[in-house]
Amino acid sequence: MEGNKILDTASELHTVNELLNKYVREQALSHEEKRGLWLFYKEFKDTNTLIDFAETVAHENIDKLLTDSQKLLGEAEECIEIFEKSATGLSDFESKTASEWYIEPFKEAYQTESGKANVLWKKFTSLSNHLDCMFYEGYTQEEIDKVEKECDDTLKEYNKQKALYEQLYEQYREELKKYSGLAYFDISLLNILSTKLVAICRSILHDITRIKQEGGI
């Protein structure tokens, strides 16, 4: 079996509790720290996987399941306590502004290069149209060659600029995808999740006690 779902959850929740306490003390977290809170919720909100893991481990090492569940219970109860004692301070938590501020430079970068590419494309199409007309309007071959070269050079410059724009746009999309859920993350969801974890852990501990009393696993 890969990993220890209960212990992993407890470890990550411990980090969450540290970040929550830091926010209460300082009323500030870095963008990455806020993202860490969101990622924890995103990764561990499906508590059904936790229950499935516990049912499997109960048949392999019930004593380890006991200690791990106690640890997770402690972290979940601490998280709930933080929300109860610091409801006012945590109510000011906001991540949308920071997310937009973080994403903006990536957006501006690709838009700037896109604008340059559009200018070059317009120049190329204008030169190309002019070149087509030159063959029928009595221009010398030298004049035609000169415009043709400028047209080719402009197209090369456009293709180079377009590649840069596409690269920056892809970076923007990646960062946008990376932080898409953070802007609208409600921190109270951590309290709700911790409440569910407490109920699950208490149920696991209750079942372990019953099994041991009955002389089971």
Give a verbal description of the structure.
By secondary structure, the chain is an all-alpha fold. It is 82% helix and 0% strand. The chain has eight helices and no strands. Helix 4 (62-85) runs antiparallel to helix 8 (188-213) and helix 6 (96-134) runs antiparallel to helix 7. The longest helix is centred in the middle third of the chain and has 39 residues, at 96-134. The mean pLDDT is 91.
Give the structure's gist in a few sentences.
The protein has 217 residues and is an all-alpha fold. The chain is 82% helix and 0% strand. It contains eight helices and no strands.
Relative helix content: over 70%
Tell me the structural class.
mainly alpha
Give the low-pLDDT segments.
none
> What sequence of helices (H) and strands (E) makes up the elements?
HHHHHHHH
% residues in beta strands? under 5%
Gap between N and C termini: 19 Å
Tell me, what's the shape?
A: elongated
Radius of gyration: 30 Å
Give descriptors for this structure.
elongated; single chain; 217 residues; 0% strand; 8 helices
Topology at a glance:
Elements: H1 5-26, H2 31-44, H3 48-57, H4 62-85, H5 87-90, H6 96-134, H7 141-179, H8 188-213
Helix pairs in contact: 1-2, 1-4, 4-8, 6-7
